[in-house]
Design a protein that fits this description.
Blueprint: E1 5-10, E2 13-18, H1 30-43, E3 49-54, H2 65-72, H3 82-90, E4 95-99, E5 102-104, H4 106-113, E6 116-119, E7 124-126, H5 140-148, H6 150-159, E8 163-164, H7 165-171, E9 176-177, H8 182-193, H9 213-226, H10 232-245, H11 248-263, H12 266-280, E10 299-302, H13 306-317, E11 322-325, H14 329-348, H15 354-362, E12 364-367, E13 378-381, H16 387-400, E14 406-409, H17 416-420, E15 429-434, E16 443-448, H18 454-466, E17 470-475, H19 482-499, H20 503-513, H21 519-526, H22 528-537, H23 551-557, E18 571-572, E19 578-579, H24 582-594, H25 604-624, H26 631-641, H27 651-658, H28 660-674, H29 676-679, H30 683-691, H31 700-708
Parallel strand pairs: 2-3, 3-4, 4-6, 5-7, 6-9, 10-11, 10-13, 11-12, 13-14, 14-15, 16-17
Antiparallel strand pairs: 1-2, 7-8, 15-16, 18-19
Helix pairs in contact: 1-3, 4-5, 5-6, 5-10, 6-9, 6-10, 9-10, 10-11, 12-26, 13-14, 19-25, 20-25, 22-23, 25-28, 27-28, 28-30
Bound molecules: 3-hydroxybutanoyl-coenzyme A and 1,4-dihydronicotinamide adenine dinucleotide.
Length: 709
């Protein structure tokens, strides 16, 4: 077994190195070894001071997150880190924590238990536990306000954002920036302070005094807004407030109670699931580090419309030179003006320097020709959503692009195999489905056709990371993962208003569930013209006699396309603020009456169940067909692409928390009431419910044979 903690000596300074790759998490064995090393240094008569440092690329990224699930399931007892860290603070010899990379969560709590902290200029410190539905659980809420003051501690513990090295020093969290070699600097610092009695953070009370109650009220108000529906940020605030009201020991006891409450919550289970799911998406069976990838040094985008413009910015933002091509000068000018306006707005908000904006613009070459396309390493097509138009573009690209150029389509629903068939190199053709606005939204859905080569997939996955995206691999089907599921979701919302719920009730029910916006608000944002075009394109698949939403088409025919025309399901003012539209309500009622749809009071819970379970049922089919590799991939798609609340873990994880048997019973109830066409339960859902398993436990690789047999 490699040593998790190493004890060495540098003359009169003990050097304790935590070495638990990849991020030096405080896994079982680490706190115990750390405690033993401190005791060894104390017993060593030659040692005057102690330096605590992390091996590899970071200090300590916190408690081992994988342990939390084991504790909650009863597999392992909860071992508080607090007493181990207390040994550091109680050391009679001064301990200097030397921070590089990250000191997060239990990592910062370890550093704050030391008597001094020195920090590399590029390092960050933070208490990100709330992002896992937790609060600091090893004294962080008690020590941080003592070092940085109540306001800073509230910010860091309730929002979870890390703080850069210079800010950490300014706030009093760290004592000195070490330019150059961190260990050398830490050893020098340790010798400077070796003879002074070690100061204990827990004894520092001055920054706790005079904390006004309104500070906590304000923090709670902010937390309720930013972490809508979440408990952990409020618990973190309660714990920091306890630091101002109680002794250190009692404050730690209060922190432990609140930590435990959070640890056993669905919120924490969901966020921990999302943490690991986000990291699992990049793991693709059959693709490894050895799979060849093409280096993307130059890109080209076709179409400077809504998506093409955003994709062009995404490349420029990542420092990749990009050509953007249009068919006409006015369309090109419009596209470039939007790009300039978007960058300008970011500069005006102070989030980008003018210099950086100029640099990004200099990387973009707008043009009407294919000049230079022969040098592009990737070409992304973002023209109209029409198969023939796209095939024509790919036919052209096949003639111009170099053989190792990735040919990507941003189609949101069309068949990648059909598009690839227009070329002589289908192995290089792939979907790169960005979400609108492409330069902002974190999700990138990579769509693999049946001929897409491993190299094109591996290149797109690696490129996604470089572009700052969370990249999910999907199989080829109508709408892929995200849009295939959103179809039934919006359909149910439309049926519900025809059955008697108001537009506002449907939107509010799902907003209160935690969605970033309600489904009809989303429809208005995407454009009712877009939904109409999709319905027309797929009209031929519509079975006669099967119910279809009626009002959406009527709104479209009246030129009410949603936000872009100021009217759709709702009315919008000049600032795009929505309000109820009495005419829409009247139109819905009249249409429903004429169609013989029974109008009734629809409970909020039915709205939530019908919309969310329509996602879940379609998600189950997507999973069993292998369109998504894992339930977690679907969850990540919905969290980053569709505003699903991360604290519910994504639609599939949410269904797991409700219990698949309960979900299935409810779906069967809907099937009886609304017909098998929409509600026949997915076979995978039935099977998992019967076996008492969860979507999370389903492994397509292992179970593919069972499914296909
Ligand atoms: N525990 C267990 N595994 C962890 C971990 C942790 N705290 N932090 C990261 N990992 C794992 C990841 O799952 C990943 O594993 P994989 O290679 O098998 O997929 C690997 O380490 C590398 O992580 P990333 O891919 O995220 O690497 P990056 O370099 O992009 O980011 C990081 C590094 C900024 C440290 C990021 O991983 C991170 O934010 N980690 C979580 C930090 C955190 O939330 N800490 C608080 C934990 S809770 C706590 O401390 C409670 C305490 O108060 C008692
Ligand atoms: P858009 O209509 O805003 O832009 C399309 C642009 O392509 C137009 O400016 C048009 O002039 C240009 N164009 C057409 N043929 C061309 C050619 N041969 N060469 C160069 N330029 C050409 O459309 P939008 O919304 O940007 O959609 C583009 C693609 O992105 C579609 O496939 C769409 O399904 C997909 N998409 C759209 C999303 C959205 O929210 N708008 C989200 C995700 C994907």
């Amino acid at each position: 077994m490699p040593e998790l903690v190493r004890y060495t000596r540098r003359d009169d300074v003990a050097l304790i190195t935590i070495d638990n790759p990849p991020v030096n998490a405080l896994s079982p064995g680490v706190p115990e070894s750390l405690q033993a090393a401190i005791r060894q240094a104390e017993a060593d008569g030659e040692v005057k001071a102690i330096v605590l440092i992390g091996a590899g690329s970071t200090f300590i990224a916190g408690a081992d997150i994988r342990e939390f699930g084991k504790i909650v399931s009863g597999e392992r007892p909860r071992l508080s880190l607090l007493p181990f860290l207390q040994t550091i603070e109680d050391s009679s010899k001064p301990v200097v924590a030397a921070i590089h990379g990250q000191a997060l969560g239990g990592g910062l709590e370890t550093a704050m238990s030391a008597h001094y902290r020195v920090i590399a200029p590029g390092a960050q410190v933070g208490q990100p536990e709330v992002k896992l539905g937790l609060i600091p659980g090893a004294g962080g809420t008690q020590r941080l306000p003592r070092l940085a003051g109540v306001i800073k501690a509230l910010e860091m513990c309730a929002a979870g954002e890390p703080v850069k090295a210079h800010d950490a020093v300014a706030a009093g969290i760290a004592d000195r920036i070490i330019e150059g070699d961190l260990l050398d600097g830490a050893l020098t610092f340790a010798r400077e302070i070796a003879s002074a009695p070690p100061p204990k953070t827990r004894d520092r009370e001055e920054k706790l005094r005079n904390a006004l109650p309104m500070v906590f009220d304000f923090a709670r108000e902010q937390a309720r807004k930013k972490g809508r529906g979440m408990r952990a940020p409020l618990a973190a605030i309660d714990a920091v407030q306890a630091a101002t009201q109680m002794s250190f020991e009692d404050g730690c006891r209060r922190e432990a109670e609140l930590f435990n409450e959070c640890l056993y919550s669905n919120e924490s289970k969901a966020l921990i699931h999302a943490f690991f799911a986000e990291r699992a998406v990049s793991k693709i069976p059959g693709i490894s580090k050895e799979t060849k990838t093409f280096e993307i040094r130059r890109a080209a985008v076709i179409g400077a419309g809504t998506m093409g413009g955003g994709i062009t910015m995404t490349y420029a933002n990542a420092g990749i030179p990009v050509i953007v091509k249009e068919t006409a000068q006015d369309a090109l000018d419009r596209g470039m003006n939007t790009i300039r306006k978007n960058y300008g707005a970011t500069v005006a908000k102070g989030r980008l320097s003018q210099e950086a904006m100029d640099h990004r613009l200099s990387l973009i070459t707008p043009q009407l020709t294919y000049d230079g396309f022969e040098n592009a390493d990737i070409i992304v097509e973002a023209v109209f959503e029409n198969l023939e138009v796209k095939k024509e573009v790919f036919r052209e690209l096949d003639k111009i692009a170099k053989p190792e150029c990735v040919l990507a389509s941003n189609t949101s629903s069309l068949n990648i195999d059909e598009i690839a068939s227009a070329t002589t190199r289908p192995q290089m053709v792939i979907g790169n489905h960005f979400f609108s606005p492409a330069n902002v939204m974190k999700l990138l859905e990579i769509v693999r056709g049946k001929a897409t080569g491993k190299e094109a997939i591996a290149t797109s996955m690696a490129l996604g990371k470089k572009l700052g995206k969370v990249t999910v691999l999907a199989g080829n089907c109508h709408g892929f993962i995200g849009n295939r599921m959103v179809g039934p979701y919006v359909r149910e919302a439309q049926f519900l208003v025809e059955e008697g719920a108001s537009v506002e009730q449907v939107n509010d029910a799902l907003y209160n569930f935690g969605m970033a916006m309600g489904p009809l608000a989303m429809d208005d944002l995407a454009g009712l013209d877009v939904g109409w075009a999709i319905r027309k394109e797929f009209e031929r698949h519509q079975k006669p006699g099967v119910r279809k939403p009626l009002v959406a088409d009527l709104l479209y025919e009246q030129g009410r396309f949603g936000q872009k025309t100021g009217r759709g399901w709702s009315k919008y003012d000049a600032n795009r603020k929505p309000s109820a539209d009495a005419e829409t309500a009247e139109l819905i009622e009249k249409t429903a009456r004429q169609a013989g749809i029974e109008r009734r009071n629809v409970p909020d819970q039915e709205i939530i169940d019908r919309c969310i379970y329509s996602l879940v049922n379609e998600g189950a089919r997507i999973l069993e067909e292998g369109i998504a590799l894992r339930a977690g991939d679907i969850d990540i798609t919905y969290i980053y692409g569709y505003g699903f609340p991360a604290w519910r873990g994504g639609p599939m994880f949410y269904a797991d928390t409700v219990g698949l048997k309960n979900v299935l019973d409810r779906i069967r109830e809907f099937e009886r009431k609304h017909g098998a066409e929409f509600w026949s339960p997915a076979p995978l859902l039935i099977r998992l419910a019967e076996e008492g398993r969860t979507f999370e436990q389903f492994d397509i690789e292992k179970e593919a044979a069972v499914l296909t047999s």
